[in-house]
Amino acid sequence: FTGHAIHALAEDPIIALEAGVTTEPLIVAKALEDMPGEPGKIMCVAAQPTDREAFEALRVQLGGCLSVSGSHPRLLEIGRLGISKKTAIATVAADLGMAAQDCAAAGDAENDLEMLAWAGTAVTVENAVPEAKRLAHFVGPSCDEGGLADAVAWLLQRQSTLAMADETGGRNG
Prior knowledge:
It contains six helices and eight strands. It is α/β, with parallel strands linked by helices.
C-alpha cells in the first residue's frame, strides 16, 4: 500500500480481491526493486489456512522492529513502529486541542485495540475480536446487521444526554 495504489509482485486473485475491496488500483511489478518508494504498509493475505502459521512466524520475527497486527482473520498488516490508528487519532485530537477522554473510536480488529484503549469512549460490533469487545463501552450487532450504525446512534444519544446534563447542572439540577 502506498496510499494511492496496491503494489504486488505477482497477479493473484486474492490480492485482486483485496484491491477491489479498497477500490485502489493494483499495480504488478516485475521485481521488488521496481516498487515505488517505501511502502506505507505491507499487507499479508492468507490464501490457505496454513498461511496463518506463517503469520505467527512473521509476528515473532518482526514484532520487535515493526508493527505487526491483524486487521481480519486472513490479513496481517506490517508497518513502521509507532505508526498506528491510535497515533493518527491522537495526533488529530492534539491538533484540535481535544483530550483523549473527549474522543470516541470505533474498531473491531487487533489493529484497532491501541486506539480503542486510548479513546475516552470505545464502540465496537458483536463480531469484533474479544479484546475489542472488552474495551468497548458499547457493543452493537455484527457489521452485517448494521452494528456500526447502532454504535453511532448510541454515541449521538450519549452526547445528547451529556450535553443536557451539562445544561441543567447535572442530575441534581
